[in-house]
Amino acid sequence: MGITGDDASGERRPVEDGGDGPTWDRLEDQLGWYDRKSAAAQQAYKRVKLGQLIVGAAVPVVAALQVSAAVTATLAAFVVVAEGAQQLYQWQTNWVLYRSTAEALKHEKYLYLAAAGPYSTDDRDRVLAERLEGLVSQEHAKWTESRQKENQTSPVETKRH
User: Fold this and answer.
1) How far apart are CA 136 and CA 148, in angstroms?
2) How far apart are CA 30 and CA 25, in angstroms?
């Protein structure tokens, strides 16, 4: 990792670069992963929602034009299937969760590079490793919790009588 030095006043100086140790590599890897996954989830969510809006708005128009009932029903079914896919894949939830984690990782990166806050000590690499893994663990816990909630609120339930 980057090394800071003391200036004449005894203050820690910011690092010139991020360094090259395993903790820094892990930070860069995780930041890239969350950034990419957030962007992909955002794109999928917006595409599905836009498709739902367009097709959903077309349903009453097609019905008013007295196009065959099969066409109207097919368009309406598309809207339902698209919403089902959103509920199944949770693109909006993942977008927000992954973006939040990416921004938290960026925050840690900038504090580290500035040798500020918790990174103004000599054991800053250890602090970065602990905080990085804490953020990733929190995200995993939130992701798991959202999946459990999804399963509990699923419209398809099997009950024994």
Assistant:
1) 18
2) 9
Question: Which residues pair with residue 6 across a beta bridge?
Answer: 12
How many residues are given for the chain? 161
Residue 13 is given by DSSP the state P
Please state, in angstroms and rounded to a whole number, the distance separating the CA atoms of residues 136 and 145: 14
DSSP conformation class of 3: -
Query: CA 35 to CA 106: how far, in whole Å?
Result: 10
55-102 pLDDT, tens per residue?
999 999 999 999 999 999 999 999 999 999 999 999 999 999 999 999
Q: How many CB atoms lie within 10 A of CB 102?
A: 22
In the numeric block, which tokens belong to residue 98? 């992954």
- Which SS3 state, helix, strand or coil, does residue 145 take? helix
Is residue 59 within 8 A of residue 76, CB to CB? The reply is yes
Phi and psi dihedrals of 6, rounded to 5?
A: -95, 140
pLDDT band with cut points at 50, 70 and 90 for residue 145: confident
CA–CA dist 152, 146 (Å, integer): 10
Beta bridge partners of 12: 6
Please give the Cα distance from 24 to 38 (Å, whole number): 21
